Amino acid sequence: MNGLKISTECKFIKFIAGNNFSIRDDFSVSTCKVTFINGTRAGDIVDSNAECVDKDVVLQSTGWIKIYNPILYVEGIVLQSYAPFEYQVQQFIVDGITKFYTDFNEGMCRILVPKSKITDIDGYIEVINSIPYLELLEVTEDAKELKNIYGVQLYRTNLRLENLNSIVFNPKDSYDRYLIRDVDYLGTFILKLESILNQYGVALHRYPIDTNTPRSDRLIYKITEYQVQESPKSNYGPFRDVVRHKTTIEFEGSFLNQVVFEDFRTRYQDVRLLTDFTTFYVETKHGKKILASLKWSQINTDWNPDYNVDNQGNSGIPCTFNVELRYYVIYDRAYYNIIHAIDMTIIGDKFMHQAPEVDTEDAVVENTLDDKPIKQNNTNLDSTDIHQVASEDLDEWLKLRSN
Question: Is the pLDDT assigned to residue 361 strictly greater than 70?
Fold first, then answer.
């Protein structure tokens, strides 16, 4: 308060301009009166009961202010706030940094914890001790690993935080800034499609397949359109972070048995196999389910009962068809705001802990979907390149899923 941290057991405090500096406690009415000379800065004060936290603040007179020192319990770590008013605590685990970073002022503090130091409780204690608005009261045996704290507000009541997460934020990984991406829909669709075909007895392979793959009744798929933007982007309202995309997948069937081929074709045309698969849900990274839709084309065959050679050089009865996936790509604005706050904290560490404060709930972000690393439309790529790009994303998605 006024750039000073006053040590008192009273419940009310008041700053008054006078002829000298003094701190007087009246325990009979639980009041603390601080007298100062007009024009005095916090850095000019020398008193055992007044610790300077901002030397450039010019002391100002106040009315009676009720003192609240709320306590925050965070999984074995107990902190107490000595800020004059409401105080926000943010803490994020960050990849790509090697030391703790902090930003703080009278209204908030932000702590960046390196991924490699989430168990460094001793180092964390040193960080807390460097923030004048917080005091470390206790560290119990439950304090084993540091977690994320998403902007809790300390004011008039104590808080206990439980079930915190350890999500690692990486400022360099832009793809994590999406609640749900194209590849999330594509990967989920492929897995569901593979399950349907396995039950029917047809294998699913991605183009190109290995020539040593055993012959069987199978479908080979190739992604011919990927991340094609269909809806205009809005800079306002609820759709400013949502864009509708389309991905098209072509299939070439190759069947060893005439009976299986005709049954597959009949079921497809009668909306009993694949074509009855028209919608599916995909979970965002926060667990919310988003619906995607499918539009299947007609099945094309040459109606020739003789065996033909497919594009892999294998003999079989061919057929072709495609499906269009339509869905919404959703940008994670809260994640972006956190990353922006992390960036500003690292930059601000060089400037006396005065980086701009960022509201992680509803900050205004100038960058929108247009300048994110998303390969919209892919108009400059041929079908083979598009398939390669989508396949690389799909391989990475499947690898992460398996882990």
Answer: no
